[in-house]
Specification:
The protein has two helices and nine strands. The chain has a five-stranded antiparallel β-sheet. It has a two-stranded antiparallel ribbon with strand order 1-4. It has a two-stranded antiparallel sheet with strand order 2-3. By secondary structure, it is of the alpha+beta class.
Amino acid sequence: MPVSIVSRFDSNKVLWESQTLESLYDADLSGADLYSAHLCGANLSRTNLYGANLRGANLRGANLFGAHLRGANLSRTNLYDANLSGADLSGADLRGADLRGADLHGADLHGADLYDANLSGATIEKHTLNKHLCAVSRSDGYMFNAFTLKDSDDMLIRAGCRTLTLSEYRDHVKENYFNTAKGRETSLILDFIEARAKG
């Protein structure tokens, strides 16, 4: 399906306005200004969007499999039903983004800002999310993103490459960091997340 880019953007002197594209697969759009671009259903898999401005863009149903979105501005972006599996979203600004039904399997969310993002129905690994609860950084910079789950009282913690429920994460800490400073700090973070969930 052709994709129409309604807004104008500039990427290293490349200017596209109201151009129709079949695919942007594996394209280099690093640093591109795609503010409010209409990319609904676009194939952006493996595209380099490092540091790109996609604020307010419509990426509903877009294929962003394996896309490089490190440090990208995706605030207020429509990512409803988007495929973000394997995408690098580290350090991305996703504040207020619509991620309902998005596939986040294997996505790197390290340092991503998910404040006020709508994650209802989004999936990470085998879990269906309800909402982003909070993000907490350990003293070594390791980021813990906590989510409430749909149809469950449990929480999901995404930290680095691990995606575990709260109880699974507590077991992981006991098995791997028992009686260490790292283990104590991580346990405090998990206590904070649990308290935040109880609200």
